[in-house]
Predict the 3D structure of the following.
Amino acid sequence: MSTYLYVLFWMISFGASIVGAICGIGGGVIIKPVLDAFGVLSVSTISFLSGCTVLAMTCYSVIRGRLGGESLIDMRTGTPLGIGAAIGGIVGKSMFQALSNLFADKDMVGAVQAACLLVITLGTLIYTVEKDKVKTRRVENLLVCVLIGLVLGVMSSFLGIGGGPINLVVLFYFFSMDTKTAAQNSLYIILFSQITSLLNTLASRTVPEFSIWLLVLMAVGGILGAMSGRMINRRIDGHVVDKLFIALMAVIIGINIYNIYQFMS
């Protein structure tokens, strides 16, 4: 890879992590489809690098929030969700590996991921626009929380996005959280799923080939983006976060449509 591509990957990781920290989507939902669109690395490599970047970003965000006394994480709800997401992270990674083994043409794997992400993002956009009209719930059963987290973990790990917008919709609907509270709890859930997903990849020895310096640059970009995103998040209200989130979903939908066309052609 040339030097300008290293710089480009860092910029994407940094920018995506800023928005991810503000909105609570982890950044992977931006990093994964954008890097897929460039087509310079394999689908599995991008999924792995995206997941590691999100892990670095969420580690910083969650730990910094706890140490600074600014955490809005509901431990009673977030922890069982995180445990479920951790289990789901293993299942999702196994599903991705099975899909990769199924198709000789790895572009088909990318097309399936892009199509799934397109459907999820479109549904998230529709819900976010109409959420004021939707009557939300307040789930308290711990087993149900674990099962919901399991589904979130499977989707995030399989798609290589860390967590993404579906986390926010689930937290809005099932737990009646406001925008900023949902954002922090979403990052907490993503942290669980990404740790187990990474450990599973290492244990199964399915780590793709990549330059270690590229991983370091992207992880640093993720942490710096998280730092910047936290500062911005403190200075804006929930309505601005909602507008940013909606705009972001629209952009991601467009990128995924392009990626499906690129992988299938």
About this structure: The chain has one domain: 3-264. The chain is about 80% helix and 0% strand.
